[in-house]
Write a structure and sequence with these properties.
alpha+beta; Diaminopimelate Epimerase, Chain A, domain 1; 4 strands; four-stranded antiparallel beta sheet; 77 residues; 3 helices
Length: 77
């Protein structure tokens, strides 16, 4: 599982990717982006193996990335 965030010109871009084993375990890139993009004041989505999103609240990027670990752990039970 990989999650990247970029800030450019006052906008946040988010990218998540998940390997086959992660997807088989219930961790899906689209779900990750749907959960963290609103933290940055945006939205997004995608497929189980790759997803993109964005937002406008640049100051919230660290909060969004911090939420990823808890999200993954909750999916793994």
């Amino acid at each position: 599982v990989g999650v990247l965030a970029s800030v450019n010109e006052g906008k946040v871009t988010l990218l998540a990717v998940c390997g086959k084993e992660a997807v088989a375990s219930g961790v899906k890139a689209g779900d990750i982006i749907k959960a963290i993009a609103p933290i940055c004041g945006g939205k997004g989505g995608g497929k189980p193996d790759s997803a993109m999103g964005g937002g406008t609240e640049v100051s919230k990027v660290d909060d969004a990335l911090a939420a990823v670990d808890d999200l993954i752990l909750s999916k793994l039970g």
